[in-house]
Amino acid sequence: MDTSDDNIQQLAHIHELVIATLDCFSNVVQFEHAREMLNFYKFLPKLLEFFKVVEMNTEKKKLKNQKQSVASLGGVSDPTKKLFPEVKSILIEIITCLVYQNKDNQDLVRNTQSLELILNNCNLDANEPFIKERAILCIKYLLENNPDNQNFISQLEAKGTDIDEENHKILTKAGFEVDIVDGKVKLKKAQKIEELEQKIRK
Predict the structure, then answer these.
(1) Least enclosed by CB within 10 Å: which of 60, 108, 115, 155?
(2) The pLDDT of residue 119
(3) What digits encode the pLDDT tens for the residues 92-146?
(4) Which residue from 84, 96, 73, 105 is spatially nearest to 21, judged by alpha carbons?
(5) Rounded CA separation 188/202 (Å)
(6) Other beta carbons within 10 Å of 178
(7) How far is Cα 153 from Cα 23, in angstroms, rounded to an integer?
(8) Tens digits of pLDDT across the chain (202 residues)
(9) pLDDT value at residue 69
(10) CB within 8 A of 120, min separation 6: which ones?
(11) Could you state, in order of their start, the residue ranges of all structural domains in the chain?
(12) What is the longest distance spanned by two Cα atoms in the chain?
C-alpha cells in the first residue's frame, strides 16, 4: 500500500470535504421542509449505502488502544482500513433525523440491512467519540411505534454478534427490556416507559 505524503494529504483533504458536506446536511435535516425534500429525492437509501462503504473501509479503535494511534489519517493498524474520524457519527445523526416519526424510513433502514449496522455502532470508538450516544438515540427512534423493527431485533440470535451483553444495555437505554427465552431475544418496552406513556395519555 502506498503511504506517501501525497496520498496521506489527499486522504486528509477528502476527509475534510466529507465532514463539511455531512455537517451541512446534519444542520438542515433538523427542519421538516428539508427532510421532505431529502425524502422526495430518496436521499436515505444513498446515505445508507455510503454508511456501509465507510463501515467496511474504516478502522474502529478501542479506547484502550488510543495511545497507540497515530496522528495522520494514513496510519492505521490494518493496512486495508482508513481513519475517517467522526464521519459515522454525523451519518447516524442525519439518519436519526430522517427516521424520527417516519415509518417509511424506519422500514427502509430495516429492509436494507442497516438496522444491524446502527446497532453494531453502539460501541465506544476512540475515532468516533460520540457515536455510542448518537446510535442509541437512533435505535430508539427506529424502534419507536414500529412493531416490525422491534420484532426484527427480537428475532436476532441471543448469542450472535448483534445482541450481546453490551447491546442489552444499549437497548435498555433506548427504553426497551431484553429477555432471552429459548435462545431467542424477546423485546418489550421498559416498565418505566410504559408507565410514563400511560400518564401522558391520561
Answers:
(1) 155
(2) 85
(3) 999 999 999 999 999 999 999 999 899 888 877 777 878 888 888 898 899 889 9
(4) 84
(5) 22
(6) 20
(7) 30
(8) 455 677 888 888 999 999 999 999 999 999 999 999 999 999 999 999 999 999 998 877 765 544 444 444 445 556 556 778 899 999 999 999 999 999 999 999 999 999 989 988 887 777 787 888 888 889 889 988 999 998 888 776 433 434 555 555 666 666 665 554 444 445 555 554 454 445 434 4
(9) 44
(10) 161, 162
(11) 5-147
(12) 65
Reported residue count of the chain is 202
The grid cell for 48 is 445508507
Q: Check: CB of residue 109 under 8 Å from CB of residue 115.
A: yes
User: What's the CA gap between 14 and 4, in Å, rounded?
Assistant: 16
Helix (H, G, I), strand (E, B) or coil at 58: strand
- What's the rounded Cα separation, in Å, for the pair 202 and 143? 23
The span from the CA of 28 to the CA of 102, in Å, is 17
Residue labelled with grid coordinates 446502527: 118
Cα separation, 104 vs 116, in Å, equals 17
All 3 cell numbers of residue 94? 442525519
Contact 163, 152 (CB under 8 A): no
Of 148, 152, 154, 178, the closest CA to residue 166 belongs to: 178
CB 25 within 8 A of CB 94: yes
